[in-house]
Amino acid sequence: MDTAITQIESVLDAKVRPSLAAHGGNVIIQSLEHNVLKVRLTGKCSGCPAAHSTNEELISLEVHAAFPSIRDIILVEETNPQLLDMAHKILHHQL
Q: What is the pLDDT of residues 35-81, one digit of tens each?
């Protein structure tokens, strides 16, 4: 694993993940390229209406404080594959 990502993981472990875990969630790093960090919220935090606020007020704040060279932290939002599968079944009257 890249040294920078390992260092960012340490900050997330210490300053971000405990708050997310209290809400049944977590954050994973998708990528770090050209000083742009892409993260994805998981668990109950995935798809939460407050996800963008969590990124701005918690994740970005802590990462920028520890790593000023990071230009941007982007929240990657993906639809849960199981949810998509269920939606397809409903549309095709299979449920």
A: 999 999 988 888 788 888 988 899 999 999 999 999 999 999 876 67
What DSSP character marks residue 39? Answer: E
Q: Which helix (H) or strand (E) holds 89?
A: helix 81-91
pTM over cut 0.70: yes
CA 89 to chain centre: 28
**Closest Cα to residue 64, out of 8, 13, 20?**
8
75 φ, ψ (degrees, to nearest 5) = -85, 115
Alpha-carbon distance of 61 to 70, in angstroms, equals 11
Distances (CA, A) of 43 to 9, 39, 59: 18, 13, 16
Q: Which tokens hold the place of 58?
A: 């918690």
- From residue 67, how far is each of 11, 60, 73 by CA, in Å? 10, 10, 11
Residue type at position 5: I
